[in-house]
Amino acid sequence: MSMVIVEKSLSTTEIANLYKMSSDTLCKWQHRGQKFACLTAGGTLYFLVLLAALNLDGEVANKVQYTAIASVGRVLKCPDSSGVPTRDNKAWTENERLKVENSSWADDLTSLDAFMNSNDRTLKDDETYIRFSTKSLKGNSLKVTDSEGELLFLALTNMQEALGPQILSIGDKLHALFWNEDMDDNSRQPGFEYLAQHYSIYNCYCEKGNGAPQGVYPDYSRKKGAQQVNYKQRLPHPSKELLDNIKEYHILAEMLSDVGHYISENLKHHLPDVYAKLNAFTSILLLFFNSPVHPFGGFVVNIAACSNGHKDSMDRLICVIIAFGCWTGGDLCLKEAGVALKLDHANAVIFQSGKITHFNTHYEGYGVSFVLHSDTMGEGWVYDLNGWRQQLAVFNTTETETLVDTLTLTNS
Hints:
By secondary structure, the chain is α+β, with helices and mostly antiparallel strands. It is 37% helix and 17% strand. The protein has 14 helices and 13 strands. It starts with 11 loop residues before the first helix and ends with a helix.
């Protein structure tokens, strides 16, 4: 009989005291070690031998930012699992769209279940999709996982019932806010492009504060001799589009307040572990940041979207797509799941956007989709406030350590 005992980890300060060193020195060592661990996890332990032989270990440890190392690690771990060619993505997507158009419809959950259990959910070039309309769910939710319990998608269709008649008017409000006569309403038109605006809080490419003087706020700390310092990228920061369109952002944030709460409650119910990981980031943002789509760090507005095949490698765990408006086509296709989902107004789909290749079929009409997502680099803020933990006093220490412990346990 085995027994698992979970004990609270020692804090950085407590470990430093045990070994009679400063917490700054320990944090610096830890930060360097994370870089090498990221590389070896993505490929092989022999990367360390290669770096040492080329005398590059010091360069990696001291000069290369962790975000760059993390990107290299992801490429090494999964160099090309999507099947999407990098040079001719448009042609690849058009071929997949033809497959979807020639695929059968699942009339009910029984036929959908039969298809989902018919293969290993890794599609080859000669395989097909199953098409499914979320209208068949009649206000119910549908969670689909693979043979190992990994989430393929979760469809939510009772938003109108849960939030009332104001949901029906969101499409008209969005039309008035964004639409203009120059916009294409048919993705088959030559030169078609759709509008995407990012209203998000990012933590990517942040400058770490490990080794910075204690008691000096990040906005006032700079290295000796530095000519230019990008202070804004030391802490989680809003996207440029958010800052440039602050009026529209506040309108959208108010519009999404009830929708965000609806999604949050469904995440707690259907995907509690995922909710806990996302919540760890948005719960300790600085006071002047308050995400209207908590626990996500922000959202993207897509106007008349018809995207080519892609994965969102910078998304943390999952994304949520919510469709509003009136349109034909534009089905959400999930390649590895082998499913093309036809969404109705105010339907939502949750899936692992960093692992599943997704795209839309051709589209006609007017539609707006919200994509709720979080920056995968938010883990650095959760772990030690991007290395500025000793310089910031804007959070409850006990609460933050609990969130960090939660993140560590759920990742293990």
